[in-house]
Amino acid sequence: MAFNGGSNEDEILINDDNDLPSILIHRNPAFNFLPLTNLLKNHFRLLDPHQSPDLPLHSFYSRHAHSVRALVIFGLCPVTEDTLRHLPSLKLVVGSSAGIDHVDLSACRLRGIAVTDAGKSFAEDVADFAVALLLDVLRQVSAADRYVRSGLWHSLGEYPLGSKIGGKKVGIVGLGRIGLEVAQRLSAFGCRVSYTSRKQKPSMLFPYFSNVCELATESDILIVCCSLTTETHHIVSKDVMKALGKKGVIINVGRGGLVDEQELVHFLTQGELGGAGLDVFENEPDVPKELYGLDNVVLSPHNAVTTQASIESLSLLVLENLKAFFSDKPLLSPVS
Fold it and tell me: Is 250 a domain residue?
C-alpha cells in the first residue's frame, strides 16, 4: 500500500517549531504518507529519521529519546520490542491500519504504552471491496473482460455461465468492524450469513460457529477479515478448505497469513476449490505465479482500503487521537 506516487524525501515538509509537541514518524524509507504528513505538520513537530539519512536510526532515536511521547506508524512498519527500548518516554503508538499485527502489543502493555488503530476508517471501503471480489469471482467479470479484449468472443462465441450471489451461504471469519459491514451488504443480496469470531456476539442475529471448520462445512463462501495474530495464523487451513468443498470460494481482505497460501494454491490448481478473491498475500508483493492463469481467481495488490474518503477519514482520526493524548482525553480508537 502506498499513498503517494514516490519516495522523494524532499516532498515531505517537517514543522520544526520547537513549541509544538514532538511526534516520531515511524515508516519504511520508501513509504511516504503525504496526506497525513501535511495534516499533522500543522499541529505537531514531526521527527522523521529518514530526513536525516546520514544518521543511523538508533542514533536518531537516542537523540530524541526523552522528548518523544508519541509515535505514528505509516503503513505496516513494525514496532518491535527493540524499537520501544530506544524510546523510554514513549506513551502512545498510533497505528494507521485496521490490523496491528506489526505492533508488539505485549511489549507495549508491559511498558504502559497505549496503542490505537484505524478504527472504522476503512471498514466500509474494505467491505465494499470484499463484495466486489466476490461478485467478480462468481460472475467472472475480470475473466470475461479478458475474453472480450482478446477477441475470443468473436472466435469462440458465448462466455461460460457464471454463478448468482443471491441465496449463497456466506461464512464470515471475524465479525468485527469490517466483517459486520460485509454481513450487512451480503444480507441485502439475499445471502444467508453466518460467522465465527473470538467470541459470540449476542446482539447479532447471524448464526454463530465456534470454529472455522464448522463454519466452512455450512458455507458456500468464506470471507476472511479477522485480525492476524498467533492464534489466527493459517486459520484457513487445509482442513478448512476441504470442509468448504470443490465449489467453495475464499475471499481474503484481512492479511495474507490468515490463509495457508501454499495449500490454497494447491486446492485451486487441482480444482479442489471453486475460486478465490485475494487482496492480501503471505509475502507481499510476491504473489504465487500459479494463480496468474486461473480465471476463477481475482488478484488485487492490497488495495481494499485505498480510497480518497478512507485516507481522509484515517488522517483525521490519527490527528484526533494525537490531540486527545496531548490533552489527557480518551483516545478515539484504542486497541484493547
Answer: yes
Task: Give the helix ranges, DSSP H, for the chain.
Answer: 34-40, 57-64, 81-85, 105-111, 123-139, 141-149, 152-156, 177-188, 212-217, 238-244, 261-269, 308-326
State yes or no: pLDDT of 13 exceeds 80.
no
Clarify whether residues 95 and 210 are in a common domain.
Answer: no
pLDDT digits (tens, 9 = 90+) for 106-156: 999 999 999 999 999 999 999 999 999 999 999 999 999 999 999 999 999
Residue 9 scores a pLDDT above 90: no
Shared domain check, 273 and 184: yes
For residue 248, give the CATH number of its domain: 3.40.50.720
pTM (2 decimals)?
Answer: 0.89
* Residue of 26, 27, 50, 302 marked active site: 302
Is residue 1 one of the residues assigned to a domain?
no
- Answer yes or no: 266 catalytic: no
Q: Is 233 a catalytic residue?
A: no
Active site residue 302: yes
- What's the number of domains the chain is made of? 2
Catalytic residue among 255, 261, 263, 282: 255
User: Residue 240's domain spans which residues?
Assistant: 122-299
Question: What end-to-end distance do the CA atoms of the chain give, in Å?
Answer: 25
